[in-house]
Design brief:
Residues 33-53 have a biased composition (Low complexity). Residues 22-32 have a biased composition (Polar residues). Residues 22-53 are annotated as: Disordered. The chain is mostly beta strands and 405 residues long. It has three domains: 73-95 and 118-187, Immunoglobulin-like, CATH 2.60.40.3110; 188-205 and 218-304, Immunoglobulin-like (Sandwich), CATH 2.60.40; 310-404, Sandwich (Immunoglobulin-like), CATH 2.60.40. It is 0% helix and 54% strand. The strands form five sheets. It has an eleven-stranded mixed beta sheet with strand order 2-3-4-8-5-11-12-17-14-20-21, with no helix packed on it. It has a five-stranded antiparallel beta sheet with strand order 1-7-6-9-10, with no helix packed on it. The chain has a five-stranded antiparallel beta sheet with strand order 13-16-15-18-19, with no helix packed on it. Strand 28 (389-395) and strand 29 (399-404) form a beta hairpin. The chain is globular. The relative contact order is 0.10.
């Protein structure tokens, strides 16, 4: 499909174009900000053109003419696909029109609220695929003018979702993901404080690593998304090797993702997330780098996965004949079990062994008989299922299990 793009109604001239009638925002703006006492009625916004990093296209930057109203690092916007389906996605970004003009009328949002009081500054349609170079695409316009903007996303299969993009000294680039549903997420980096989003808390040193000020190159990466419709107080507790290294409270706005530096691997880590009366806790002790995406939603706290996430089981034996057994639990309850005798080099496959996103505790054994404990190999792992994957159980000199995409 062809790409459709409109930015402030015109992008035909090279250099800087000036437009009037846009609202004013500063670094302290919020969703309800309408104060314009420091703005002259004649103030304009500019769309400047700069070279892009790939040397092919030019990147447009939407900014205020007054430098004090711009952030140092403009917010970029990315669109990506989840799942196996090609997605055609349209993104419309508007800002509050404080002068009462309604030149550009954007679609009515999914809650029935009219958006005619906002001025459209960007409309872009892109096609994203499940794999390859077009899996993720950057919209070639970034926003430097500080403020809170409305983003409306729609897809060719008639999905729609509204969210916000915050341009301030705290939030990073916005990512829109089109899959079984639409996600609009904008991260902030917490080390452990993250500007006005951090409330209070305590940290302890982690050996000679300056965590959480800096993170390891690989290890456990924790992300917590607030997908409720309002700001929520979230308390994050992290224990490493039975020693508390972080206990901190945050108040992220809707759509904001708290992102923490990676914790070095080869550790036993317990993560606890609390919000209101909801609590989620899980233990991790694997040696593989692990991204831990948690979610705070209207339904509680859990793993941030797609609703259609499943995992096929593939058990592979690389040594002498033996019996391999895997048992999966959630919240202390068995949800799936498989056991089979495998010759050397044999593989056993089971479709949809794990069903639904979440954390699964795996109990894996491999040996000539289940009663011969002296020769029985054992392993316990926690895996996080977030999208369609394969659970690989591999028996060689030891036995292990992990998810692969």
């Amino acid at each position: 499909m062809p790409t459709r793009r409109t930015v402030l109604a015109a992008l035909t001239t090279v250099g800087t174009a000036t437009f009037s009638g846009c609202g004013s925002f500063d670094n302290t703006a919020n969703d309800d900000s309408t104060n314009s006492t420091s703005e002259k009625a004649t103030e304009t916004s500019a769309l400047s053109e700069t070279a892009s990093t790939d040397g092919v296209n030019t990147a447009q930057v939407y900014r205020a003419q007054d430098p004090a109203r711009n952030v140092d690092s403009p917010v970029n916007i990315f669109v990506r696909a989840a799942g196996s389906t090609l997605r055609y996605v349209t993104v419309v970004i508007t800002q509050r029109n404080q002068h009462g003009k309604t030149d550009n009328i954007t679609p009515r949002n999914t809650t029935g609220e009219s958006t005619t009081a906002r001025k459209e500054i960007l409309s872009e349609s892109v096609t994203v695929a499940s794999t390859g170079r077009t899996h993720q695409r950057q919209i070639p316009i970034s926003i430097a003018r500080a403020g809170v903007y409305t983003v409306h996303v729609s897809t060719a299969d008639r999905q729609q979702k509204n969210g916000v993009v915050r341009v301030d000294a705290v939030h990073n680039d916005l990512t829109i993901t089109a899959g079984p549903s639409i996600r609009i997420r904008q991260p902030v980096r917490c080390t452990p404080d993250c500007g006005k989003i951090g409330v209070r808390g305590n940290t302890m040193p982690l050996d000679d690593t300056q965590w959480p000020q800096t993170g390891a190159l690989t290890g456990y990466t924790l992300k917590i998304a607030n997908t409720t419709s309002m700001s929520r107080k979230i308390t994050v507790i992290i224990d490493v090797d039975d020693r508390r290294v972080l206990e901190y409270a945050y108040r992220p706005p809707a759509g904001t993702v708290l992102q923490f530096p990676s914790i070095p691997p080869l550790r036993k880590i317990r993560i606890t997330v609390k919000s209101g009366n909801d609590r989620w806790e899980s233990m991790f002790d694997g040696t593989r780098p692990t991204i831990i995406p948690a979610i705070v939603s209207a339904d509680g706290i859990g793993i941030d996965g797609w609703s259609d996430a499943t995992a096929d089981l593939r058990m592979r034996n690389e040594r002498a004949p033996r019996e391999v057994t895997v048992r999966a639990q959630q919240n202390g309850r068995d949800v799936a079990t498989a056991s089979t005798r495998l010759d050397q080099g044999a593989i056993k496959r089971i479709s949809n062994f794990l069903r639904g996103p979440g954390a699964y505790q795996l109990f894996i054994t491999a040996g000539p008989t289940s009663s011969d404990s002296a020769r029985l190999l054992k392993q316990q792992r926690t895996v996080l299922l977030t999208e369609t994957s394969t659970l690989l159980i591999r028996a060689r000199d030891g036995v292990d299990g992990f998810l692969i995409n």
